[in-house]
Protein 1
Amino acid sequence: MRKLILVSHTHWDREWYQPFQEFRIRLVRFMDKLLAILEQDPDYRHFTLDGQTVVLEDYLEVRPDREAALRQQIRAGRLLVGPWYILPDEFLVGGEAIIRNLLRGHRIARDFGAVMKVGYLPDPFGQTGQMPQILKGFGIDTAVVWRGVPADAIRRSAFHWRSPDGSAVLAIFLVSNYCNAYRMPAAVEPFLDRLARLRATLEPYAVGDALLLMNGCDHEEAQPELPALIAAANARLSDAQVVHGTLPQYIAAVRAAADDLPTATGELRDSRRMQLLPGVLSTRMWIKQRNTACEQLLTRWAEPFLVWNTSVPMTPAVTTEALRSSQQLLGLAWKHLLQNQPHDSICGCSVDQVHRDMAARYDACEQIGEAVAGEGLQMIADRVRTTDQHNVVVFNPVSGPRTDWVEAWVPAPQGTRDVAMVDQTGRIAPLQVLGEKEKVLVSVSLDKESMREMMDWTRQGMVGGLDGGAITDWLLKQEGRTIHVEILVTPGARPNPEALRRAGAALSAWLADPQVKSFQVQIRHVPQAQVLFLANDVPGYGYKTYTIGPDLRSNVSGNPTQGPPPPAIRNEFYRVEAAADGALTVTDLETGTVYAGLNRFVDGGDAGDEYTYCPPAEDTLVGTAATSPTVEVIEAGPARFSLRIAQAYRLPAHLQADRQARSPQMVECPIVSTVSLYPGVPRIDIRTEVENRAGDHRLRVYFPLPFQVDHSCAEGNFDVVERPVAAPQGGPDWVEQPVGTHPQKEFVDAHDGRVGLLVANRGLPEYEIVDDAAPWGIGQAIALTLLRSVGWLSRDDLATRPRACGPVIPTPEAQCLGRHVFAYALAPHAGDWRAVFPQARAFNSPLRAVAVEAQAGDLPPAASFLEIEPASLTLSALKPAEDGQGSILRFWNTAEELVEGRLRLGLPWQRAWRANLDEEHLEELPADADGWLHLAVRGREIVSLRFV
Ligand SMILES: [Zn+2]
């Protein structure tokens, strides 16, 4: 007896071909009707609300009076909600964001009465390999997926899906997508016909007796006539029964069948049976860049340093309440960020208005994140014991010890030329002054009476107002009958009572002196210098203090290395030279490997749409500048050595009207790269600025390899994914031809076992290993996509994807005209990526610095909030626990094998537990006598701990 489980649902893309507010009006009407059906018809059994809880918030914001009704249906199990907050794209958001999404979704769904414990992922454009492990971390042991399931390996409607760490879930494959039974006919005969056709499609794939009929689709409303149709059908069917049911019911039936199921391991990105839409990795690149920056701001800066502050006895000025409110502010920042992560939003595949709305959400996330991070760093800096008058605390949010550059504004009372940074061992850091500022707040001539008032006014040692701060010095000078008084103010500092006392005594004497007639008073900020310096061995997940002293550079033994004559730069690791065509030749001084032709820009046409790259039938590639590039060494140390390569590419303005070729009309696009080396840093940082004046094209930067590779290693979510270089062969039966472009997080690496090249990036998630023999003599190269410019949401005339996958709507802003800045870095190395991946982390999280004055404090000059070993264990989060009880530390093992790890938290704590991703306690962990926790960590395992 067949069991036809009809799951009524809707797939609610929150914003897509209409902006959010327009879709929300539809959501409100839809929910009103749905609640009415559930209230009026007990035979309308269940409705599944798309696995995401943001729709509850969106509805109740407009209809708060319907909250009780909503809660009642959820508690009764008729309306199924959760486990997600939003349905993300799994490759464009970070692993930690996937966890936060589930945490928020669970909290909301629980609050409403029940969480649907199903890993419902009906629409994301492929599945990330660690999803089974993440779902299991929330006690979810099933997934429901459609796109990406491998056609050759999986020919059943269920399979075991395994993560690289070995975790597995029962995955339901939506054979004919999540809409197979939408808009069921309203009359009995056609209804039965449709059921028969569905059975014919699904039975070859069936596991057990149950078949899954998904009664809904994108923004589809509930069908009130369904219960009557089901009753009528059941009266007629002899070999099947139709059930108005739920996903958990169907999954239970599949599980009970205990069939021998096939297994798929890791990421699912097969496009033979359903579209994967891989072009979204590079559509509207600014979205990917901002998402990465926001995720890192929250997880690497705002949260860990907030936790550090919550873990110590409070000074009266810092209350627990203030820290609690910071935690809640970060919750709001995450909410804005998560609302930008639904697949249609972060993929960039919506109408222009949607993405304009996203910019405002990124702004909100960034404003909150920066404020909380800035406050957190300042609070820690204010607790560091210092003996010298002026100091800088340098913070490092990734592993260490780390030598890297840092920029800071610091007081330079002796003038900006004479600033030096000295660490606790007396070592002087290589330093460059980048800029200076000096601000006069008041300049006035006073008589004796007014001078007395002025002294009264400054007695507390503070100057109020917007530009105010503490008075840190008085400089006095007599010139005939006039006394020149300079009052130096330092924002954020404490007043200097000694300076005030000395000045008071001298001024009292002059006030009593009949020869003195007037006082020329100037109140000004202490001169500030913007400096760039090399911080050396900054502890991992911690900080190190430098003293700002007068320049003692003559005492430094050995001058900083001078670069060779232009146009080349070098440090102890690499030599970088610019060729006449603007490309770079890099010599790895450790291995002797020479990499030639790096940083070449290659531009081709794109006749595709927001979802899919498609070269025009007759493509024109541009790989060299129109005229000779200008190359100059713009910085020659001692802290930074930089080459600037300015060039202009002449690109076809757009596609021809027939879209078969690029236009003969050309536009000039300036491309300026700044390539920097720092002493002690094994990394080549590149910043490229592009003024995009062309449409319908794809701009990539190439890094040719001096060796052959057959696979690439790219960071994924809690994973490093090894992919073959050769793309699978497509064919006429593929609904979308396979491509060589792939997703990445912070780096991609190509190596031959002996040496290799790691390319790190900030928010540039698309790469390909290309093999372009012509026309520039490039063999294999890592290609990093910078821009993909298209003018259509979707089209139906692509050679690479025949069918449209959304409405055919023009999207002129997806051409991404205007100025763009891209950041990436190179790390040629011996061995493989394991040797250098911390440089990708470091590149994504530049050190930050905070200036402090002489102060007593409870923290030493250098400290870590976390020591963790071995180096393959990398931090993902240190955050306040959702329930406010202690904090959650999360890390993952980049190694593929089991490691014996140990870690020590540099914050006070009483008890520690292993926890699941939902922050529930597992076993308690005892510390050894030195405070270390010891644990065995599987290859690619994600580990969460709770400290109280
Ligand atoms: Zn969707």
Protein 2
Amino acid sequence: MHYFRHGRIGPFVVREPLVLGHEPSGRIVDTGPGVDASRIGQRVSLEPGVPCRRCRYCHTGAYNLCPDIAFFATPPVDGAFAEYVVIADDFAHPVPEHVSDDAAALLEPLSVALWAHRKAGTGIGSRVLVAGAGPIGLLVAQVAAVQGAAEVLVSDPDPGRREAARDFGATAVRDPAADDLSGAGVDAFVDCSGAPPAVLAGLAAIAPGGRAVLVGMGADEMTLPVSALQGREITLTGTFRYAGTWPSAVRLAASGAVDLDRLVTGHVDLDHVGEALAPGPEQVKVVVRP
Ligand SMILES: NC(=O)c1ccc[n+]([C@@H]2O[C@H](COP(=O)([O-])OP(=O)(O)OC[C@H]3O[C@@H](n4cnc5c(N)ncnc54)[C@H](O)[C@@H]3O)[C@@H](O)[C@H]2O)c1
Ligand SMILES: [Zn+2]
């Protein structure tokens, strides 16, 4: 959506025509040399970024940081709004028959949420604040609930989105325009809005020793309350996609612990991709069915 609307995400700039789409599922129709041909016909969820496998990040498992990763729909690599794509066989993860095509596609944003929680250090009994109740925030909230968080606070200015958050694991919702979150004392704050005011409000809500994880992409730069971060020893990190999340994502979808199908509010074909990329606030996830 950032590429479609703004032509860039941080340092990644679209300079020539680019096929978008990086949350794909499908069925294997053919295999290349050296790949197990018995996989033809298998239903798969595609992990859209294939790293170089040779650099120090790849060697230590932090392959999301690989400088040579080829990631669908990140310039200059074309994405998955297409009938056919080619990907390394180990990045085509098999999904059980009872996981829908839509859910298999949404293992990608689920992976973003799983990675955010890994960075946030959340677990049973945690108090978590999530800013932004778009697809990513709703998945972060769901995963918090599945992990046994004691409190899952979700803030969003949009009343419909706050309502959705209640359906997806929030124990309470907040309107950032009306509710003061400072002093809430959460263990972890996960920003899924990219809005600087949300980040500042979230930082003020963290208990001493807590963590802040910036997932949302909006402002490239913002001013931070340094003395508050120091005085409360807050750990602040960003996240970049994910690494090694598909196996757990597949299991969470297969067991029904995380509900992905309910995030889907519409479908379009390849001729109407623009509608999926400019959804109204009433839409959560629009899936493209080629
Ligand atoms: N770091 C990563 O690897 C990564 C991966 C995927 C997505 N993202 C980013 O995560 C963000 C969320 O993605 P999405 O698809 O859910 O987007 P989205 O635009 O659907 O959701 C953002 C939500 O934030 C809400 N919001 C706006 N201002 C707010 C405020 N002050 N306080 C609280 N909420 C506020 C909006 O109303 C909206 O519901 C995007 O910025 C996206 O680019 C990052
Ligand atoms: Zn690498």
Protein 3
Amino acid sequence: MDVTATSRQSFRASHRVRNISNSATKEMAIIAARIGGCVSLGQGVPSFVTPPHIIEAVRTVLVEDPSSGKYSLQTGMPALRNRIARYLLDEKRITVDPDSEICVTVGGMEALLATVLTVVDEGDEVILPTPTYASYIEQVQLAGGIPIFVPLTENWGLDLEAIRGAVTPKTRAIMLCNPGNPTGTVFSDEETIALCKLAVSHDFVVITDEAYDYIVYEGGMPFSPLSVEEFRRNVISIYSLSKKYALTGWRVGWVAAAQGWMAQIMKVHDATAICAPTPSQFAALAALDGDQSCVAEMREKLLARKKRCCARLDKLNRYFSYVAPKGAFYVMAKYLFSDADSHEIAIRLLEEAKVITIPGGAFGEGGEGHLRISFGGELEVIDEAFDRIEQWLEKTI
Ligand SMILES: Cc1ncc(COP(=O)(O)O)c(C=O)c1O
């Protein structure tokens, strides 16, 4: 028997899946675990833990209500959808029907994938302003779509002319991360409105990822175009409770869209997950209903960490330049000391300085030549990482 042929046959994964790659974040974490003793500027998770009032609310409901461990309705518990609808109206002036225009999902990630699978057909083009959130690339490819990378401007703004030039009859969507991972950019209302007008006139969809909407360091939350009646057919919006309430492991978020879209997205969600974890939906309800001071406290701490991170980068301005982040907890640091690609630099930093960063090239073409630095970690972690980077630069550059 030809064993090789048999095993090759049994592991023949689909083209769609073989074509996508593991995330650079994961690769760096695996290498770091092998090396040992590394300090991380790579993590996409702030150091905070789930607030006690949320844990307590879930503990109580699990003890007192036996149905809290069962499936909920596919779109999520009615009480949570009603609460989300109220939140969207109060905070973002978005009017949605809680019964037919909200679906609670397994984190923002499932919401994104269900949306991409719903909108994108084989061979369709999806515009990704780059640097982009790396998982969008995989999700578009998984759906059989073609990512079309359009670089952001030098200050990480939307290059509307370039986007206009990239639109073709095959364009189905653009994915807009606002505030941006990995750039920390916050697009202006004008940029978002102009983009949505373009989407309406060419009939493509703007998928807004608002996972970091509450982390803005100047002004209020960014503008949500789903709040505008004329954009409703062309906008699908994704939300996450992961970072806002330190709920990353609970896996809960939602997608909001006009009923016509939601009826389709729901089918993917049902086929994928049936429903978001019910205990996590109770956590989401407690988070939205509860005292919001935990959010303000986390944002204050992130602001202090951002300042420390920028101050440390400023000290190294012979080696790095950067655009100060206006939101989220990432900064793209452009390295000025080497022409090597970002993967090579990130690996060297990891192996020689024992500092984890994420190679900018993982975020699409516009990210090459940069390292993504997260300031989600404690101040001591940020300082330790920069101490090591400084020593490494002095020794090797
Ligand atoms: C831009 C962006 N969107 C979505 C997600 C997914 O978040 P969730 O934990 O809700 O799936 C992340 C997580 O890091 C993210 O950075």
Protein 4
Amino acid sequence: MGHVYLVGAGPGAADLLTVRALRLIERADVILYDALVTDEILALGPQAKKVPVGKRGGRVSMDQALINRLLVSTATKHEIVVRLKGGDPMLFGRAHEEIEACVQAGIAVSVVPGITAAFGAASALTTSLTQRGLSRSVTFVTPTVARGSQASPSWAKAVAAADTSVIYMGRGDASWIRDTLLNLGMPATLPVVLAEDVSRPSSFNVKGPLADLPDLALKVGSGPVLMMIGEVFAETEVALDLFDARPSSVEMLGSTKAG
Ligand SMILES: C[S@@+](CC[C@H](N)C(=O)[O-])C[C@H]1O[C@@H](n2cnc3c(N)ncnc32)[C@H](O)[C@@H]1O
């Protein structure tokens, strides 16, 4: 019986892997990997059999129950099975279900952390998510599968309560997210940065006020995107700044930019 390792691949750049992750990738017999794992990282384990089990929002992908079964059956035939996941396995990665499947099948399972996309983005933007006097709380949320009749869903309340928020898997719901947050009383002028393809050569960031979130979402491409919201981003410099691009927005921002 083999050992399953749920390994965080980080946001994309190979040199953001942990040393432990690299050692396991180099020794793996089989690597089951998500769509967000880059070729650069997969190339670090040339000896391993690579099996894509990719999940990418909106696209047809392998059902989670099937992934769980594949993980278990692979571990009955191979010694070192690496389940490689984008970012950190323990954040929006369905790690719990995979761990449970292994435990139930009597297969040893370990988890290796990775750099979650939010931390990769904060570093790339050189913007600390907490800042003395400005931000004491950070929330990571996803509104996916939350759509419904609820006027203020729990993810939105969490965003409204935090000083800084990072929204995962939100791009397709930009209008709904903007409307929900404005309805909760969040300022229309609050700075938002959309960070696409964090830590990859194709990385792209756009910034503007919360009121413009749907427009910002139209500016990014088809790569994975984070929505980052909070006053900490007021001074963040990005490739495309819609505050600067439109004089009316700069005026609207007023004290936010100065303070
Ligand atoms: C299923 S979640 C996985 C999150 C992952 N476990 C982590 O810790 O980063 C996928 C979402 O993470 C975000 N994401 C992951 N990698 C990213 C990257 N390199 N750049 C921007 N966003 C990323 C996007 O919001 C994407 O839709």
